């Protein structure tokens, strides 16, 4: 059979047409699928906007004595945890976990650095000095924040954080019962997600990574 | 009073763990673990002693609920 004979040409043409047609179909499907994913992402952001956590502003003192407001952290991804320095075990464990998450994410050069924040629910005892002593045991980028009772209450209210000081014993010591959550805040100050005690450092890091990647494409 | 630092927290947690291991090994017979109990109370703030003791009671209660009250 001579190459380029009519039979071959017909087969080649048919193959080409099929491939083009199949490719076209695949292209359309992919386009529709990515549009749908985009829509779902937008819906979720809308829902979170409506939940309206972290919409307010806070003004607090950091552990080095500098005043910081919510505005100072815009442009950064933030992982936020509320606790107190006299906490027996939960706060150190959660902050240890938070530090591990930040270290994990730091290893990925394609991601921006995440800012860990610790806001006290015990402003009466947790002044700047107490916070400075506390945060140095965790990630070097961890910033501790405190303020007056009103300022701290205002910040907690913004994230609907529950906090209730227990009775004082004869040493004047007490435990503060409080919400145990790590909050993820986007660079434009939007609350995007939260992680409870059950979430491991890997799970949190994975979730944050996904949020950062999706956010870039919104 | 200042909050316990990282080393002090670890000392307290270790004392607590030794006490709890002793109690586990001795069927919660507190008399057998007096030494560990004193260590625990010496190494941890009073509030933490109360907190961890309550926590252990709660964890035991949870296990009883799962296993059933008549099982040993």
TrEMBL record, chain A:
GO molecular function annotations of the record: copper chaperone activity; copper ion binding
Highest taxon, organism lineage: Eukaryota
Protein location: Mitochondrion inner membrane
The keyword Cell cycle belongs to this UniProt entry's keyword annotation: no
Membrane disposition: Single-pass membrane protein
One of the Pfam families matching this protein, by short name: SCO1-SenC
Keyword set, alphabetical order: Copper, Disulfide bond, Membrane, Metal-binding, Mitochondrion, Mitochondrion inner membrane, Transmembrane, Transmembrane helix
Primary location recorded for the protein, binned into one broad class: mitochondrion
BP GO terms, sorted: intracellular copper ion homeostasis; mitochondrial respiratory chain complex IV assembly
Transmembrane segments: 15-32
Keyword Ribosomal protein: no
Residues binding Cu cation, per UniProt: 87, 91, 178
Disulfide cross-links: 87-91
One GO cellular component term noted in the UniProt record for this chain: mitochondrial inner membrane
Family: Belongs to the SCO1/2 family.
The protein's name in its UniProt record: Synthesis of cytochrome C oxidase 2
The species this protein was found in: Neolamprologus brichardi (Fairy cichlid)
TrEMBL record, chain B:
Compartment(s) of residence: Mitochondrion
Annotated Gene Ontology cellular component terms: mitochondrion
Any Gene Ontology biological process: respiratory chain complex IV assembly
Matches recorded under InterPro entries: COA6, COX6B-like, CX6/COA6-like_sf
Keywords per UniProt: Disulfide bond, Mitochondrion
Major localization listed first in the record, in broad terms: mitochondrion
SUPFAM superfamilies: Cytochrome c oxidase subunit h (SSF47694)
Full protein name: Cytochrome c oxidase assembly factor 6
Species, as recorded: Neolamprologus brichardi
